Amino acid sequence: MPFPLFRSSICFRCTFLLYGHSRLISTSVRKMSMLYDGLPLTGYQFARKDHFLPMRNESTASSEIQITLNELKLALAKEMGVDHPFKPYSKDREYLTKYLPKSQDEMPKRSMQDSYIAAIIPLSQDVALQEKYTTFLGSVRLGRLVEDMDIFTVIVARKHIVNPEAPPGNFPQTLVTVLVDRIDFTEYQPKPNKDIKISGHVSWASRSTLEVVVWLEQLDDGHWQRITRALFLLAARDPTNTYASVVNPIEPSNERERTILFGGEDRKKRRLEVVNAHVSKQMPIGPEQKILHNLYLRTTDPSDISMSKRILPPQCVWMSSTKVSNVILAQPEDRNLHNTVFGGFIMRKATELSWIASYMFCKYRPRTRSMSDISFKQPIAVNSLIHMHATVVYTHKNFIQTIVYAQVYNPMSGLTSTTNAFHFTLEAPDIVPEVFPITYYEAMLYVDGRRHFHKDLKETQGAFDSKL
């Protein structure tokens, strides 16, 4: 969802920067886990001559990027006509509907290079910013980075969309996050006192949706170290966020862009397959039924013919005991451009709650390895009570799979509505207890978590050497 508003007053540049890479330097990859054995840190960026370059590291100084992420946020906020300070209502944007195109034929075709942009999170210069990004262990808060990536995808998508009919300084469309396909983290641990570069471009587009790929890198000892790569899916809507609006089609400018575009079609099919195969729509397949039956047999007393007693095996934990919850009162500073709760804020809270649940479960400080299939079902109003639940649903050796649900709670009616679901894979430094379901509902969570873990394990291998 679009980004939150910031209270700081920083002048901005409305010109988006196309940043090129001038030098390629290879590095070795340290193998630390089963999930990341042999994971190459190769990504693809744009050079000034409009060619893709395979990149591992570069020695270009962060000072060459002349714009910060916060400046880009403020530039878009101004274009959207956002007021400061907060008002409990949004400006009427319905008059902009007349500028919306009726079909994609009215929109100029765009290459992926047209949407490419890079900005800096200036941690090396801003002490107050360092405080926001630093964990109690002295590393960088991943939740803050996830929040930044969600903000940045909107900026990238905005750069892709060119509407010749729109008046200068106005952007009729509304951009919302529909899904986070996946976010993968490398072995590199970012530092809270060094600049982070955030960059990305539109990698696929349909009639009204856009897929955006985002990279995070940190300048360390003169070289850019890859932190993560993320894939977001955004939808373009009308000015009142009521119905879909068309976006510019993509016309690949070279063979590399054609390869990426074909990969986007494959990812679209995979997303549909995941949705259609969910346990809420299809019963577990044969091998999964056998796994669940074996779990049941391991927790029954063979001497009790009624099979009513459930016994927890050694070094195991009931799934119900791993659940951790919190309640958040959304505030105006957590809002987006449309006076609803910013999706990146919800992602940050879910990331941190998942880590807390895993920490309490395994007694080690785990590392978040990947996030996938993060869904946004409906907007959340500012002043809502957001109830979040994190549960460990599957474990394998030293890996922990968690799911986090976000629900809006109405204290007057007592009713709740589930708005978001998040899937996380975390890694502990040692073998963790095995988690056991005790009800059919928990058994379905177990199956779903197991599917996500093995799917992410397969897709993460070489994630930074893929079609993106």
TrEMBL record:
Belongs to the acyl coenzyme A hydrolase family. Keywords: Hydrolase, Repeat, Transit peptide. One of its GO terms (molecular function) is hydrolase activity. InterPro entries: HOTDOG_ACOT (IPR033120), HotDog_dom_sf (IPR029069). The keyword Nucleotide-binding does not apply. It comes from the Eukaryota. Residues 118-240, 320-432 form the HotDog ACOT-type domain. This is HotDog ACOT-type domain-containing protein. PROSITE patterns: HOTDOG_ACOT (PS51770).
